[in-house]
Amino acid sequence: MGIPKDILNENPSLGDWSIMTAYRGSIAHGMYVPKSDPNSIDDKDIMAVCIPPIDHYFGLREFGSRGTKEIKRDEWDIVVYEFRKFINLLIQGNPNVLMMLWLEPKLYTHLTESGKKLIENRHLFVGRYVYKAFTGYAYGQLHRMTHMAFEGYMGQKRRALVEKFGYDTKNAAHLIRLLRMGMEFLKDGELEVMRRDAQQLLEIKRGEWTLEQVKAEADHGFKMAEQAYLDSTLPVGPDVENINKLAVEIVQHEFQQRS
Question: Where in the sequence is the domain holding 244, given as residue range(s)?
Fold first, then answer.
């Protein structure tokens, strides 16, 4: 099932303005647990990239909150980025955003010529600079795993799992996945979004690993990621000059197409 029609009809950023819309999160990683499972705590996560009308660029209109719009309804958790915001997040090495350029084709629910051009030029965003972002996000998951167990974002079922296992198993699975993906990226400049180790990560998510096992694996992962960074032959940072040229070309193309 795709995004409900009422959500699409209410949000042009997912329709005419979108250049790329795709599944992200657990679905993209092969780790989605459907609602039919009594222990499911997963939403259907979507990310989109949009280029709003020209008055958002040359007028006073703004898109969402600082270029970001969140749409939450029932099991759907959707985030939409205005194109320039998306590009800046790519340049910062944001793991969640980078993954949009390495998804399996079947995960894109909407992809225009401009979206395809962005994917074709994903090599511009390859570099060692992603190390800080991936490990930073991983440290965040490590902290939330044990220290932020009952924050407001947590539903009743997820809270029950934290109480049962003594730590947030979903954060734990994110932690290990991020470290592995960062290490892989630093080696060859490719992101393996659909995980070959999905079953093992699901074991962690289901609470089949002890907290001590997770921490030991995380410690190993941080060390491996650091070594991968030191050994990496990737460029130091993203190719900002050519990224800027690409961004101009894509925005110009979209406005020409629409006119």
Answer: 8-125+239-258
